[in-house]
Amino acid sequence: MNIWDLIVALILGLVEGLTEFAPVSSTGHMIIVDDMLLKSAELLESQEVANTFKVVIQFGSVMAAVIVFWERLLSLIGINKRSSSKVPMEGSRLRLTHVIVGLIPAMILGLLFEDFIDTYLFSVETVLIGLVGGAILMILADWKVQREVRTKGSHEGVPLDGINYKQALLIGLFQCIALWPGFSRSGSTISGGVLLGLQYRAAADFTFIMAVPIMAGASAVSLLKKMDVLTADVIPFFAVGFISAFIFAWISIRFFLALINRIKLIPFAIYRILLATVIMVIYISIR
């Protein structure tokens, strides 16, 4: 392993961390980075090592979300961090059951169509469709809010603790759209939440909280299956990627949550369309 391998690990972790939870499609970004950097690292010449590395950096992003939302995650299982007793946090109405209801649709469809998605939907063309389609969905969500402001004078929206089971289920259905690569889990669910009347911040919070158990579980299972790949010569490479993804995911989540109520979704929609254009140009140039 050389210094360039570690630089590649740092950059790949950065890209994963910054894009995993932002509504911009981490898949779309990884396509660009894969073509430019992934194959340039000696350690990633092995497909098995490359696949395991992607799981490791995704796990780093998930751990950042756990740190950001640890109080809320504890409250979902009835633990009040101030007393460490199993009692609901005062004023908290979001329950673990809301999260489970939101996860069910995508889990069912993901299991039923996993082979089809892996075989037919992971291509540059389908990701481009997902990027543009997701941008349109985000524009529609912002348009709905702007229309409400024009007609009613304001948009109050439902807060996180006001989410009911019907809204949780419908947001879960919007998450199913993200099974199509390029749509982005957060882009689909935040847009869906806003369309269903949630505050932007509430839709983002619920999206990230919902992502933690499913992503953490999937990453943990994948890592357990690939333990034989974690040899001494790749540990430094994986560690750099994990730490990089963790740090930049933490920054990305905190930054996004601080801004979402002010900037809304249109800037991310525009960025997605520009990203789709860049991917299309790169794809055409290398064919």
Automatic annotation (TrEMBL):
It is found in: Cell membrane. InterPro entries: UppP (IPR003824). The chain crosses the membrane at residues 55-74, 94-113, 119-143, 203-224, 236-260, 266-286. It is an enzyme of class 3 (hydrolase). Belongs to the UppP family. Bacitracin is thought to be involved in the inhibition of peptidoglycan synthesis by sequestering undecaprenyl diphosphate, thereby reducing the pool of lipid carrier available. Catalyzes the dephosphorylation of undecaprenyl diphosphate (UPP). Confers resistance to bacitracin. This is Undecaprenyl-diphosphatase.
